[in-house]
Amino acid sequence: MTSQALAAMRAAAAATHPREACGILLGEGGRIISARPTRNVHPTPETRFEIDPQALIDAHRAARAGGLEVVGYFHSHPAGAAAPSATDRAMAAGDGRIWAIIAGGNVTFWRDGEQGFAPLSFARIDS
Ligand SMILES: [Zn+2]
């Protein structure tokens, strides 16, 4: 986790409020290096999010070309808690990627595993 990634997620959440912000977490070896905000293309962005599919395609293509891996996703809860919602649990792929959720300035991290979301500790900030 880098302070840049944290700052980018908080800035995206503030800029899109009261709609949900979303984006892609890039890194290597499961470590988050960068957070890249994308458009939220969901038709009801006040309560839902859908990462711009073209941005995801571009990120995976860049990773295959030797760039940073897609290690996860982030989104904000403009009116909710910094924890996975029922909607998030329904959307989860169980693919082991990291989900970061921003609410009220707090950022929490979760592993989207086969058994559901498990909280992750990212107390250490590498600047
Ligand atoms: Zn959510």
Structure explained in plain terms:
With 127 residues, the protein is an alpha+beta fold. The protein has one domain (3-120): Cytidine Deaminase, domain 2 (3-Layer(aba) Sandwich), CATH 3.40.140. 25% of the residues lie in helices and 33% in strands. It is built from 3 helices and 6 strands; from the N terminus they run H-E-E-H-E-H-E-E-E. Strands 2-1-3-4-5-6 form a 6-stranded mixed β-sheet. Bound molecules: zinc ion (ZN). Residues 75, 77, 85, 87-88, 101 line the site of zinc ion. Residues 1-127 form the MPN domain.
Kindly provide the radius of gyration, computed on alpha-carbon positions and rounded to a whole number of angstroms: 13 Å
The proportion of residues in beta strands is 25-35%
Largest sheet, spatial ordering of strands: 2-1-3-4-5-6
Number of domains: 1
Major sheet: size, sense and barrel closure?
6 strands, mixed
CATH H-level superfamily: Cytidine Deaminase, domain 2
Order of helices and strands: HEEHEHEEE
CATH-scheme architecture: 3-Layer(aba) Sandwich
Estimated structural class = alpha+beta
Q: Which descriptor suits the 3D outline?
A: globular
Count of separate DSSP helical elements? 3
- Helix share of residues? 25-40%
Overall mean pLDDT stands at 93
CATH-assigned fold name = Cytidine Deaminase, domain 2
Q: How far apart, in Å, are the first and last alpha carbons?
A: 8 Å
Q: In CATH, what is the class?
A: Alpha Beta
Low confidence ranges: none
Q: Could you tell me which ligands this complex binds, including any ions or cofactors?
A: zinc ion
